[in-house]
Amino acid sequence: MILIDHPHSGIKYSDMSTIGIPRALFYYYNGDKYVRFWQQVGFDVIVSPPTNRKIMEQGLKLSNTEFCVPVKVLCGHVWYLRDKVDYIFIPRILGGELRGRRRYGCPKFMGLPELVKNTVPDLPPIIAVDVELDPRKLRRAFVTTCKAMGVSKSRVVNALNILLEDEPNPTPRVEGDLILGVVGHPYLLYDEFLSLNLLGKLSDMGVTYVTSADIDHTILDTYIKQDYDVYWLYEREMIGAANYFATNRKFNGIIYCVSFGCGPSSVVSEFMQRIIAKRIPLLMLVLDEHTTEIGLLTRIEAFCDMLKWK
Fold first, then answer.
1. For the whole model, what pTM was predicted?
2. Helix and strand tally (H, E) in the chain?
3. Does residue 172 contact residue 186 with C-beta atoms inside 8 Å?
């Protein structure tokens, strides 16, 4: 197996090549863009199905016990794709300069290709591209990788516009008797199997919610105070979202979802409990492979009932 992260990998592109993209972790940030990019370049793309019990169990079987559950799930998705595609795309998310400070993806994002390579057996080549905030570095990384695969530069340059296009989120408008802010990584909140369909349960209970991923980055920036401007890209945004929800009087409470064993999130958890919980009711949900649906439902029902009584 070869990591395609340098121009001498020896792997060549053909019109029949298929790239697999696991529906986990990074997919929930820019998955649609990655799919359209590789299709525009000329590859067929297969995305693994939504997480199910078989994918979860296979990921648990393959993974080290110290991995957080989202990484275990990713390994299950890669295992699903391994015999169906010619390559598997797993970017290495490094971060970059933002607001005058160097920001980083968490360690699992920065070493994801190598982690997968050494965890899941019998894989096709992994396409590992260094993803940074700087558009110039992003362009260079994808052009270099595609050149190593024999793809013409003109095809890549045209497709890069897909990755670089800005898609601002409109400011959410919320109405309802009970309105909650839900803070967490998108790969936790929007993976219905991993989150035990938390958002669906809230909807069934008649709760109006806004997630941290629904808020535009420019809005989040205004709610990130200097004292809590952490170095991790995604945790920084969750802190901004928590401040946004705690400041906006329309919100009755916050649910904070975190995966057990996540190092950066443990820092954010302290911020939530010491700062945010003093300003607005807070429920922290720790999710892992042992979380049960009835346990989750009991906790969110009790939290919502207390908010209504208040």
1. 0.90
2. 13, 11
3. no
pLDDT at 70: 92
Which is it for strands 179-183 and 44-47: parallel, antiparallel or unpaired?
A: unpaired
Between CA 119 and CA 229 the distance in angstroms is 34
Quick one: pLDDT at residue 11? 53
Low-confidence ranges of the chain (pLDDT < 70): 1-16, 168-169, 171, 226-227
**What pLDDT is recorded for position 126?**
94
- The pLDDT score that the predictor gives to residue 168 is 67
In this prediction, residue 151 carries a pLDDT of 86
Q: Strands (DSSP E) along the chain, which ranges?
A: 18-21, 44-47, 87-89, 92-98, 101-104, 126-127, 130-132, 179-183, 208-211, 253-259, 282-287
Please provide residue 188's backbone torsions phi and psi, each rounded to the nearest 5 degrees.
Answer: -90, -50
Sign of CA dihedral 176, 182, 188, 193: negative
pLDDT for 205: 94
Number of residues that this document lists for the chain: 310
Burial class (CB in 10 A: 0-12, 13-18, 19+), 62: middle
CA distances (Å), 42 to each of 35, 56, 126, in order?
11, 31, 17
Torsion of Cα atoms, 125 then 131 then 137 then 143, to 10°: 30
> How many Å apart are CA 138 and CA 144, to the nearest integer?
10
- Least Cα distance to 92 among 104, 82, 81, 80 occurs for 104
CA distances from 253 to 101, 144, 215, 224, 267 (A): 31, 47, 16, 19, 20
Of 91, 78, 80, the C-alpha closest to 31 is 91
